[in-house]
Specification:
This protein has about 270 residues and is of the alpha/beta class. It has one domain (about 1-265): Vaccinia Virus protein VP39 (Rossmann fold, 3-Layer(aba) Sandwich), CATH 3.40.50. Helix content is about 40%, strand content about 20%. Strands 1, 2, 3, 4, 5, 6, 7 and 8 form an 8-stranded mixed beta sheet that branches. Helix 1 (about 1-30) crosses helix 5 and helix 7 runs parallel beside helix 8. The longest helix has 29 residues, at about 1-30.
Length: about 270
């Protein structure tokens, strides 16, 4: 009877923890930190379901790689700010960097100042060949990157990808999670398409992660879009929100919606 009571208690606590985490993610997704324009994209980005799939918990140390303007940060930071830690591995900037990177980094850092919405968040730098120490080695519970792998591949090739996944592996604790969301290129497409389309083959991403030492624990179709052929005049940027063709075939691309995306959860083995 005692063992049964202990089992029921443990199960109840586990369920409570799960509900608490779900509530924290839902509250953050619905919070006033996010604009109505940002929330409108939830239809395609599914942030609540995605973060639950990755296993985000409020007490985690989470590194978001290349967070841009903070679309996902607006959800991640409120979840972990009290019990965990949020780290933005943002743009690497030096004297040769263009103005876009400089301004984007400065704008993000401004949001971490006292009284701002990411107050107390840590900002480090990431670049697939120039800045790989995104956090102290072995201290992150979770590393997340959303729609960035193609950028590293298009600019730095296989070397950049190997460096990136190696850096993520180094950053994580044993048992830590790497979550990847990326535009997905059909396996039947030519490999050359990855160099200019903005889409990546799932097999390539998985192989790169496994080469770094990761194990693929699970994949999800939460961000899949079967209407996307991944074959467009201006690559993934043909689709919303970019709509690179402007008004040309606008209704067609709006009907497709945002890209078909792979959602992959990798684990750093515990040895």
């Amino acid at each position: 009877m005692k063992k049964l009571a202990q089992f029921v208690l443990a199960a109840t606590l586990g369920m409570s923890s799960g509900f608490a985490t779900a509530d924290a993610i839902s509250d953050a997704a619905m919070s006033d930190l996010r604009t109505s324009k940002a929330k409108a994209r939830d239809e395609y980005r599914n942030p609540q379901q995605t973060l639950r799939f990755f296993g985000l918990q409020p007490d985690m140390t989470v590194v978001e790689v290349s967070p841009g303007g903070g679309w996902y940060t607006d959800i991640l930071y409120p979840v972990v700010k009290e019990s965990g830690k949020y780290v933005a591995a943002h743009f690497y900037v030096d004297e040769n960097s263009n103005e876009y990177y400089k301004k984007a980094l400065a704008a993000f850092k401004k949001k971490t100042e006292a009284g701002e919405k990411y107050q107390g968040a840590t900002v480090t730098a990431f670049h697939p060949t120039k800045a790989l120490d995104i956090i102290d080695a072995g201290t992150a519970d979770m590393v997340l990157t959303f729609r960035n792998v193609h950028n590293w591949y298009m600019r730095e090739g296989d070397e950049g990808i190997d460096n990136a996944f190696g850096a993520f592996f180094t950053a994580l604790k044993p048992g830590g999670v790497l979550g990847v969301v990326e535009h997905e290129l059909p396996e039947s497409a030519e490999n050359d398409a990855m160099q200019k389309s903005g889409y990546m083959k799932r097999s390539y991403v998985v192989a790169a992660a496994e080469k770094a030492g990761f194990v693929l624990e699970a994949s999800s179709d939460v961000n899949a879009n079967p209407m996307d052929s991944a074959d467009h005049p201006k690559g993934v940027w043909t689709l919303p929100p970019r709509l690179a063709l402007d008004d040309q075939d606008r209704e067609k691309y709006m009907a497709i919606g945002e890209s078909n995306r792979m959602t992959l959860k990798f684990i750093k083995p515990k040895k």
